Amino acid sequence: MHPTLRTVLAGAAMVALATACTASDADASRETAAPSALPTATPPDTDTVASVAGRATPPAQSADAFAESAPGIAVRPVAGTTVHRDFKRSYLAMDTWTLYPAEGSTGQPLVALVLDGSNEITSAEMRIGRSDGAADVKSCTTPPSDAAGKADTADVDGVRTTHFSSSDAAMSHYLSADSYRVVYGGACYAVDLIIAGTRPEVYDPPRTPPFTAQQAKAALAAMLAAVHWTH
Fold first, then answer.
1. Mean per-residue pLDDT for 114-122?
2. How far apart are CA 223 and CA 139, in angstroms?
3. What is the helix (H) or strand (E) element at residue 166, kind and residue range?
């Protein structure tokens, strides 16, 4: 081949190679830069999401275990208790609206919270009853003759009530109670905290109570603290 032609062809080949390399580098540069042209979303902080959700939808409060329309009485749920709408559980405590009803009383039971595990040996429950009868309302805060000692006053959810204690025993059965009486919204309300049962030693073999008297009193105090008034 003529030397001059060889030189020309070699130069052309070098130019073509340089051009191809330049185009390849430009394409690669475009491919690499393409993703950076798109905005990248930043994942939301989980604590922030939870905080916003918490403000938007605050947790709902537990519904009352029992509630009257205003003005009346209500009871919040108490762990470890069962709600009943009757008072038919004790040998010595009648199933009337109040532990010591007067003759001709016309009240009605509203609700009872019974401590879980209660049985015939030992039971603990809070009873709430109401009477709209004129005679019951008039004598509402007068302690019955069965009351032991002098009555005093106690606040129940900020409402001043008359408080008295009582006890009874018969045929190996026993009962002790703390009672609260108040006129609210024109009605007489009776709240009775009752511990009742049978002496375990009369059984053969002797029975074991489901809980102690101290545990029963603590549970009844928690039940009383759950009482509130509807306005």
1. 96
2. 25
3. strand 159-170
